[in-house]
Amino acid sequence: MKQEIKVVIGIIIGTIIIIIGGLWIASSTQKPTGLASGAKADSKILIRAGSPLISGSSTSLSVGDEASSSVVTLVEFADFECPACMVFAPTLRQAIAHYGSKVQLIFRTFPIHPNAPADSLAALAAGDQGKFWEMYDLLYKNQNEWTAYGANKTALFASYATSLGLDINKFNADLKSAANKATVDQDTADGNALGVDRTPSLFIDGTLVTGAISYETLTSLIDAELAKNK
Questions:
Q1: Alpha carbon distance 96, 101 (integer Å)
Q2: Which tops the pLDDT comparison, 230 or 202?
Q3: Pairing state of beta strands 103-109 and 72-78?
Q4: pLDDT at position 62, please?
Q5: How far is CA 44 from CA 47, 62, 102, 190, 206, in A?
Q6: What pLDDT is recorded for position 58?
Q7: 3-state SS string for the chain
Q8: Tens of pLDDT along 38-80?
Q9: Region 114-139 average pLDDT
Q10: Sequence-separated (6 or more) residues with CB below 8 Å from residue 62
Q11: How far, in whole angstroms, is CA 119 from its chain's centroid?
């Protein structure tokens, strides 16, 4: 009996050692997330040509368009299925409306939730017809509807596209386009390279802020950047 007890104790101790060792290895090899306080992101990774861009009342711009002469650049990595992103979206839109051409917002897809790749493609497909930001608003406004719709959401996304006056045949084709899939893959890779590990993640002139911050916090950060850039 004593021998059996010793064996059981030995097994327990060995298991504990394995668990502790595994945790140590995981913590020592885990990639760092986020940027150090005050550090600036690499602009070559942060901003890519062709990403959806909004400034003032212009909703059909993309990075590289000369129509933008903004002073402060916001780059959002977000997931349309993310509840916090849904809460934060109106705050961003309100700030863009408030600052007009002084601020521009660039969107980068960063799918984390199960449906996120599909909804990202829906937004990009709408963007191919100049309606990215309109689809952006619809996806967040109707998040509870399409996330509960079932596995095949193509018909529902198509109904949103129809409500925006899009060419539905082109929209359905663009949902499957290699170019839009490549954009999602590139955005995800860039987000990972920048240490993005949650959504929403917002870079304000290259400095990372995470979470659905309040309008007051957002505008104070933007005001600080505007003051620096005078």
A1: 8
A2: 202
A3: parallel
A4: 78
A5: 6, 16, 22, 10, 11
A6: 72
A7: CHHHHHHHHHHHHHHHHHHHHHHHHHHHHCCCCCCCCCCCCCHHHHCCCCCEEEECCEEEEECCCCCCCCCEEEEEEECCCCHHHHHHHHHHHHHHHHHHHHEEEEEEECCCCCCHHHHHHHHHHHHCCCCHHHHHHHHHHCHHHHHCCCCCCHHHHHHHHHHCCCCHHHHHHHHCCHHHHHHHHHHHHHHHHCCCCCCCEEEECCEEEECCCCHHHHHHHHHHHHHHCC
A8: 568 888 999 999 999 988 767 767 786 654 567 899 999 999 9
A9: 93
A10: 49, 50, 51, 52, 53, 127
A11: 12
For residue 43, which of 77, 10, 73 has the smallest C-alpha distance?
Answer: 73
The maximal CA–CA distance of the chain, rounded, in angstroms, is 83
State the chain's mean pLDDT as an integer.
Answer: 83
Question: Is 174:49 a contact under the CB 8 Å cutoff?
Answer: no
Place of tokens 């599909």: 118
Range 102-123 average pLDDT? 92
Sign of CA dihedral 87, 219, 209, 135: positive
Q: What order of strands is seen across the sheet that includes strand 207-210?
A: 58-62, 52-55, 103-109, 72-78, 201-204, 207-210
In this structure, which amino acid lies at residue 106?
Answer: I
For the chain, the distance separating the N- and C-terminal CA atoms, rounded to the nearest angstrom, is 81
The token pair at 110 is 């960063």
Q: Give the Cα separation of 170 and 128 in Å (integer).
A: 9
Q: How many CB atoms lie within 10 A of CB 158?
A: 18
Distance between CA 63 and CA 53 in Å, rounded? 6
